[in-house]
Each structure stands twice: as structure tokens, then as C-alpha cells.
Amino acid sequence: YNVVDSIFVGHGVGEIGLAAVTIAFPIMIILMAFGMLVGVGAAAVVSLRLGEHKQHEAEKILGNAFTLAAILAVTLSAALLLFLDPILISLGAEVAVLPYARDFTRIILLGSIFMYIGFGLNNIVRAEGNPKMAMLTVLISAVLNIMLNPLFIFTFDLGISGSALATVVSQSVSAL
Q: Mean pLDDT in runs of 10 for the chain (176 residues)?
């Protein structure tokens, strides 16, 4: 997502927008890491339970993983939103870049639940024996992000916010 966002923002918004996306990248990595933490851990236990033919327990673990992902998404996003400007400044956002970084990151944080579900719980889809579906959801999301970025940035003239929105919409499709 970050590479695609960077390419289109660089062309559509310019250097300041590209700097903003780059500054937001560590925050996106943290979000993905927490989502993967839940997903990889749950996938291992789901795989064990399915191997033991304990379908009901595997489903309970999936439900718990989904709930934990939602709690983490809300909690972490709220904390990051609360201290967004100081965090962005500590990541290197200068006065000219800060509004762009704020706009981009705020949208990413508000849609982070989809990132948690899409990236994190996709591991469980793989663990339950459906790697093709897991790959398909990732590919559809990536292609959709490539298509929506120019549409939102150039056609709808949404600038850097359009790129963040394209990412969130793409991730929501993957999550669904």
C-alpha cells in the first residue's frame, strides 16, 4: 500500500505529500504489526484445534481474535489520534508537511479496523486450509488500491486524503 500511495501522491500532490506518506509509514507498520500479532498467534492455535477436529474451539478462537483485533484497533487508533501531531513531529514532520501527514494518517487510523482484520485475520484463513482465498483477498485489495488511488487523487481531486481513503477502502474489501 505504501509504495502505491507514494507513487500516486508523489505525482498528484508533490514532494510535500510524498514526505507526509513517508512519515506516516512507521505508524502503518505499527498497526500492521499489532494486527499480525493477533492473526499469527490465533492462526497457530486455530490450526492446532482444527487438527484435533475441535471445530467449535477453533471458531471460538476466531471470534476472540476478531474481538481482540477490534479492541486493539480502537484503542491504539484512539491513542495515536490523541497524540497525532506530537507523534508526527517526532517522526520528522516539519511545519509544511504536518497538515498533509495529519490528513493522511488520520484517515488511515480511522479505517485501521480493516487493516487489522485484513492483514491479521487473513492468517487464520490460511491456517484453516484456504491459502488461495487468503492470497485472493490480498491481491484484490492491492489491485483495488492501484485503481482507486488515481481515481481519488486525480479524478475526484482529493489529494493526499484520497490516497489514504483508497487504502482504507481497499483494505475494507480485503477484510470483507
A: 94 97 96 95 96 96 96 97 98 98 98 92 92 95 97 98 98 94
Find the helix or strand (DSSP H, E) in which 173 lies: helix 159-175
Q: What is the pTM of this model?
A: 0.95
Q: Which amino acid is at 17?
A: G
Burial bucket for residue 83 (CB in 10 Å: 0-12, 13-18, 19+)? exposed
Q: Which residues contact 44 (CB under 8 A, 6 or more apart)?
A: 127
The reported pLDDT for the residue numbered 144 is 98
How high is the pLDDT of residue 78? 98
CA distances from 10 to 7, 50, 61, 69, 148 (A): 5, 46, 42, 32, 15
Alpha carbons 38 and 72: distance in angstroms, whole number:
9
Q: How far is Cα 110 from Cα 152, in angstroms, rounded to an integer?
A: 18
Alpha helices (H) in 2-92, listed in sequence order: 2-12, 15-51, 55-82, 84-90
Q: Taking the mean position of all CA atoms in its chain, how far away is CA 133?
A: 18
Residue type at 91 in one-letter notation:
L
